[in-house]
Specification:
The complex is a heterodimer of chains A (about 220) and B (about 240). Chain A is an alpha/beta fold and about 220 residues long. Chain A has eleven helices and six strands. Chain A is about 45% helix and about 15% strand. Chain A has a six-stranded mixed β-sheet with strand order 2-1-3-4-5-6, with helices on both faces. In chain A, strand 3 and strand 4 form a beta hairpin. The N and C termini of chain A lie far apart (about 60 Å). Chain B is of the alpha/beta class. Chain B contains ten helices and six strands. Chain B has a six-stranded mixed β-sheet, with helices on both faces. In chain B, strand 5, helix 4 and strand 6 form a beta-alpha-beta unit. In chain B, helix 2 packs across helix 5 and helix 9 packs across helix 10. The N and C termini of chain B lie far apart (about 55 Å). The chains are: A alpha/beta (about 220), B alpha/beta (about 240). Chains A and B meet through helix 5, strand 6, helix 6, helix 7 and helix 8 of A and helix 3, helix 4, strand 6, helix 5 and helix 6 of B. Chain A: Pfam families: HHH_2, PND.
Chain lengths: ~220, ~240
């Protein structure tokens, strides 16, 4: 059974030339293909199996049409087979129309929450072609230009430490500075005795700080 | 365990922005929603997952999209998993729903979200968003990552919570865990990274970062000298 299921996906990672998209033969002449013409270089290939378009060596698109959604559960089997057999990042494009709207939420739940794939709704093939164009463009861009990508930034801890110590009741900026200079770190401050604290701040505040940190 | 209500945290601003959503979560889905001062994100659905609810229109203008991006960047420093829910804007009654062509910049924004490895979900309104949040919280509970302690802290513990919340890149759920599961601030400061990770439901890497912060030796020289904006900085001390 598994061999049969694996068969169509074996085309798996295909080599996609830079700036190109490899489309499944069955899309030749479709509206998507026509609209992609002139925007990106589209090559058709046979034997892509479950995949509709390869955007790069790592990313591919599975297209679920309104008709697929209405027809029943076949598309779910296709998605699960893809997920089990392929290590490619799969982007699922779903036609969300007035007719297929009722099926959208369960499909989204399956694709995103259970299979961990990416899902984008479109209204028709025209919108899908526009989305594919943008997906291809995004891949050719420098990763650092992506505004949503996590940027590494290291900040000095000093201002944060000062803020943290100021959260102790009775401690303002001046006392926080004195405490940090005297004890060095929050760890040492937490392990200071009331007597040691009294050397820096008054008796009442020292007791207050001690109570806050140790009980 | 299965019958216990799902726990979620909601940012204070969501109370005004999406009152229908919060009441739907409570009434229709029986969830326990606590509105609190989250510093980033719209909702927290587990100890490791935060949700940014963004309106579709926010992804359309560059200026508003940058704001969303900034919020997401901030979330990424704090939480392991980020989910972006793109919600359709409400149109006012009487206003014709616009049937304009889908803007290219919307597709560009979606492409960038996907490339950044964020999970994106689509919703057609606040009620649908509520159902998505419930699904997310369920999925997290199944993976044993649900919020484990009550979101409410009483009395003086509130001050302790605020203390923990100033630790850089420490999320609200972890701060809550520290409040409930450690006897005192001193107990937290004296914990090993692995004890911190277990108690606060943090990754070991994040726990090590917190551990380093608590032991970091303060150097006054490294404090940026910020002239008081009101120009009375030194006069008072």
């Amino acid at each position: 059974m598994t061999t049969k299921a694996n068969f169509p996906v074996t085309a798996g990672p295909v080599v996609v030339p830079y700036g190109h998209v490899i489309g499944n033969e069955k899309w030749r002449g479709s509206e998507i293909a026509q609209r992609l013409q002139g925007k990106i270089r589209l090559i058709f290939e046979d034997g892509l199996g479950l995949v509709d378009f390869h955007l790069s060596n790592r990313t591919c698109i599975l297209y679920i049409s309104e008709a697929d959604l209405v027809a029943g559960n076949e598309f779910k089997r296709r998605l699960v087979r893809f997920r089990n057999a392929s290590s490619l990042g799969g982007i699922v494009i779903v036609e969300r129309t007035q007719i297929s709207d009722q099926y959208f939420l369960p499909v989204q739940k399956l694709v995103v929450l259970e299979l961990g794939m990416v899902l984008f709704p479109v209204a028709n093939q025209g919108e899908a072609s526009q989305l594919i164009t943008q997906l291809v463009r995004e891949q050719s861009k420098d990763e650092n230009s992506n505004p949503f990508l996590r940027k590494q930034c290291s900040q000095l801890a000093e201002p944060s430490l000062l803020r943290t110590v100021q959260q102790i009741p009775g401690v303002g900026k001046t006392k926080a500075l004195l405490l940090l200079q005297q004890f060095g770190s929050i760890h040492w401050l937490c392990n200071a005795s009331v007597k040691e604290l009294e050397l820096v701040v008054g008796q009442t505040v020292a007791q207050q700080i001690y109570n806050f940190l140790c009980s | 365990q299965r019958s216990a209500p799902l726990r979620l945290l909601a940012a204070g601003r969501e109370l005004c922005a999406a009152p229908g959503l919060i009441s739907a979560l409570r009434a229709a889905h029986g969830a326990e929603v606590r509105v609190c001062a989250l510093r980033a994100g719209s909702y927290v659905v587990s100890s490791r997952t935060a949700v940014e609810r963004s309106l579709r229109s926010e992804l359309l203008s560059p200026r508003r999209r940058n704001k969303v991006a900034q919020r997401i960047q901030r979330l990424q420093r704090v939480f392991e998993r980020i989910v972006v829910i793109v919600e359709k804007d409400r149109h006012r009654p009487g206003e014709a729903p616009c049937r304009a062509q889908r803007p290219q910049c919307y597709d560009a924004a979606l492409s960038a979200l996907a490339r950044a490895g964020l999970r994106v979900l689509f919703s057609s309104g606040q009620e649908e968003t509520a159902a998505l949040l419930r699904d997310l919280a369920w999925a997290e509970r199944r993976e044993d990552a649900a919020l484990a302690v009550p979101a409410a802290v009483e009395g003086r513990r509130q001050e302790t919570l605020n203390f923990y919340l100033t630790i850089p890149d420490l999320g609200y759920p972890a701060a809550l865990n520290m409040c409930h599961r450690f006897a005192s601030v001193r107990a937290v400061a004296n914990s090993s990274p692995s004890a911190l990770a277990a108690g606060a439901q943090l990754s070991l890497q994040k726990a090590e970062q917190i551990h380093r912060y608590l032991r970091y030796t303060f150097d006054r020289q490294l404090l940026p000298e910020s002239p008081d904006p009101k120009g009375r900085s030194t006069a008072r001390s």
